Amino acid sequence: MTAKRTRNWILALLFLGWSLGNLDRYIMNYAVLAITEDLNLSSSSTGILLSSFFAGYALMQMPGGWLADRFGPRKVLLSAVVIWSIFTGLTAVAWSLTSMIVIRFLFGIGEGGFQPASSKILSLTFPKAERARAMSVILSSSGIISLFIPLAAAGMLETIGWRMMFVIFGLAGAVIAALYWFFIKIPNHPLEEEIVPTRITTSTTNPQQNKGMFKALLKTPIIWNLLVAYFSIYAVNWGLSAWLPTYLVKSRGLDLVSVGWAQTIPAVTTIVGIFISGYVIDKLPKGKERLLGSVSCACIGVLLYLMFTASSVSAFIAYQTTVNLFIAFVVTLLPAIVLKQLPTAVTGTAMGIANTGGQLAGFITPMAIGFMVDAFNGSFDAAFWMLIGFSVVCIGALMTMNDKKGDLFKQSKEEAYS
């Protein structure tokens, strides 16, 4: 088992990388206001632009997880940071909608292997009893970035402009890649506590064996429940984060600086919610996580309705602050299920498969909202109803989740690879 000091150092570096990844994604939700003006984009075109990153990111989830399992997560992690940093910098030279979409798509391809590779590293360095808390630390980067990015974005957009801003973030990625190269060292074997059937392992010399592992995962029902749950909760998460700045400016009459201040309270709630969630999930008896996750999704649906029907901005922010707590629990719960219930040998691939659902949601939802806003003459009501529907779908995915049903990791190798 990796020494505690080393584990914490690795966790800190992963947190730094996740923070930069979230920064690159969230900053676009604010920069798009200036980009839309510069490139003269409609709401539909803006939606396509916001979704283009997630198209590449979703496509790379399964290959990224498979590569992390077969060739080692460190190589995938380094490659992801280098490639995404290059295309973050190239965002600054985009001259049209088409060029911006291509650059953001390739940016997504580059970053796609980062999440499954870093999850694989967590499973190799942390014991099961600490994995949800470790995951909550790196997931908290989302809340921390969303706390600072609104005001930082407003300041940078008004001073140096969106093009120079992306150049700076690209250079920051190069620094993080160097830190990973020199300081992230991980074991080449699972923790001793992991007992994995001999056939369900990864190999650098037997591609057919790796193919069998991938097929076995796809035949495991819990993977499909996770994929649907990931899609549903991230449809809500990315739908809100991608369009809230535009919604608050156009529908609620706020300026960009006011939006920044208004989003600080929900951001703090997200940070607190993720940290608490990691601790709670590690303490819950097996099976209870899904029940609490389903209750959280029900609360999300109710609060989304209250948000868009709120009579004032203050009431809207109050409901958003509360809904962020429940979203934080669900987005921490889903990767924790992968890390705690599936063998370490397949966590990279399993996380890649499950997270494909989340990133497909990131691709589809912002684009769908853009078309809805155009179709309903600037109204966001239909978009909110769509997000409420996704919260209901997430309840179904969690309630029907049963890791004992058809668990191929406990069946004979002949059945698993038939």
Number of helices: 16
Order of helices and strands: HHHHHHHHHHHHHHHH
Structure class: mainly alpha
Distance between the first and last residues' Cα: 34 Å
CATH hierarchy: architecture: Up-down Bundle
User: What is the top-level CATH class?
Assistant: Mainly Alpha
Would you kindly provide a written description of the structure presented here, covering whatever features stand out?
Keywords: Cell membrane, Membrane, Transmembrane, Transmembrane helix, Transport. InterPro entries: MFS (IPR011701), MFS_dom (IPR020846), MFS_Na/Anion_cotransporter (IPR050382), MFS_trans_sf (IPR036259), Sugar_P_transporter (IPR000849). This is MFS transporter. This protein is mainly alpha-helical and 418 residues long. It has one domain: MFS general substrate transporter like domains (Growth Hormone, Chain: A, Up-down Bundle), CATH 1.20.1250. Helix content is 80%, strand content 0%. It is built from 16 helices and no strands. The chain has helices spanning 4-39, 43-71, 73-90, 97-111, 114-125, 128-159, 161-183, 207-218, 221-250, 256-262, 264-283, 288-308, 313-341, 347-375, 381-399, 413-416. Helix 2 (43-71) runs parallel beside helix 5 (114-125).
